[in-house]
Amino acid sequence: MTGGHGHGAGHDDHGSGNKKIALLISVLALFLAVAETLGKSAQTATLGQNIEAANLWSFFQAKTIRITVLRAAWEEMEIEVQHATNPDMKKSMEHRIERWKRTAERYENEPDPPEGRKQLAARAKTAEQRRDDAAAAHHHYEVASAALQIAIVLASAAIITSMTALIWGAIGLGGIAIAFTGIGLFKPHLIHLF
User: Fold this and answer.
1) What is the pTM of this model?
2) Is residue 192 classed exposed, middle or buried when 0-12, 13-18 and 19+ CB atoms within 10 A define those classes?
């Protein structure tokens, strides 16, 4: 009878250990879901900010072209003014030149709304920085996801093999994954190891 009881106690200890490993797997899976969600969000943000930066640089280029066209027109008209003999025509041409110059200045610096070349360049650089931040964060979330997936495999193998080293490996990888997730969230440019 005692032998049966001893066998049952050993079985209960093994079952209790498996429950703890199952709980560990559940926690790792939870962190995996968080890391994957954050990774997808960062990937979407990377794409969105890249599109925004490209659009702003396109708008910047359009303003540059407009300024160049205006500059060419007023410089050509400045030559024509020198040869104009009709005072009214000369005055009209000079007025038009001034209008073109003011328009070119506005294209260069238009703070409200922020659509001058100067403002567009600043906005595009900000979008590029946000894109780079999101891309760096995405990279860290990917590393965290991979570490968590491996940790889940190790923990699952620990149930079958009863090897304590596998459990510690799973816990260690889980800790590394949590660290990479934190880096992705708070300091995406902190390290670039991988």
Assistant:
1) 0.77
2) exposed
